[in-house]
Design brief:
Length: 203
């Protein structure tokens, strides 16, 4: 809504206001990839282009081939099934990320934290198991590690902090998480993160 505050804010940033308010909005990061050029076809064309990026014929042999061609570390994200985790080991992947992609891909899929223990137990030390999904505090990190994760991803916490305060916000967020993890470990009688296991959890 255009209020006095909004108008004053816009007046204090005329360059930004002209760029933000002028012209048609497009998917600038996809310009040149969508048939017809920048902004062509709108959301419908974007949807078709996105769908074309998924190849239903991909299989585990392709993962092994990518690993061979790449030569570097290969990390597979989106593992929710024990059998897939075992196949990831066989394919030569260096790490897997237990993740349901924030629940955006398959409505009704199990949560990442629910899938984590069985996967971690099945692959043991054969491959690094990372965790993604809902990490918002140091205690969340502790719970994931207790259930078998070697590390966790903190995408939204990182992005929210970056959006709010830039680099300083990210640094503060990491410090807060570190303190929360430290206090949570102390209160569960754990001195070393390597000693964290399911024994600290009440199920």
């Amino acid at each position: 809504k255009l209020t006095l505050d909004t108008l004053l804010d816009l007046a204090s940033k005329p360059g930004w206001a002209l760029r933000a308010l002028g012209g048609r909005k497009t998917f600038g990061n996809l310009a040149g990839h969508i048939k017809g050029g920048e902004g062509a076809g709108g959301v419908q064309t974007l949807s078709k282009w996105t769908a074309s990026q998924f190849d239903p014929t991909l299989n585990w042999e392709d993962v092994a081939w990518i690993k061979q061609q790449w030569g570097g570390k290969l990390i597979l994200k989106g593992i929710l099934d024990v059998e897939d985790a075992k196949l990831a080991v066989q394919s030569g992947a260096d790490a897997i990320v237990v993740s349901n992609h924030g629940g955006r891909q398959l409505d009704g899929a199990m949560s990442s934290i629910e899938a984590l223990p069985a996967i971690a137990e099945a692959v043991g030390d054969q491959i690094e198991v990372w965790f993604d999904g809902g990490i918002r505090s140091g205690q969340d990190v502790l719970k994931a590690v207790a259930l078998g994760a070697r590390g966790t991803m903190i995408g939204r916490a990182f992005l929210y902090s970056l959006g709010a305060m830039g680099g300083e916000g990210v640094s503060q967020m990491l410090e807060i998480m570190h303190k929360e993890l430290d206090v949570s470990m102390a209160l569960t009688g754990t001195k070393d993160i390597k000693d964290v296991g399911p024994q600290i959890l009440v199920r």
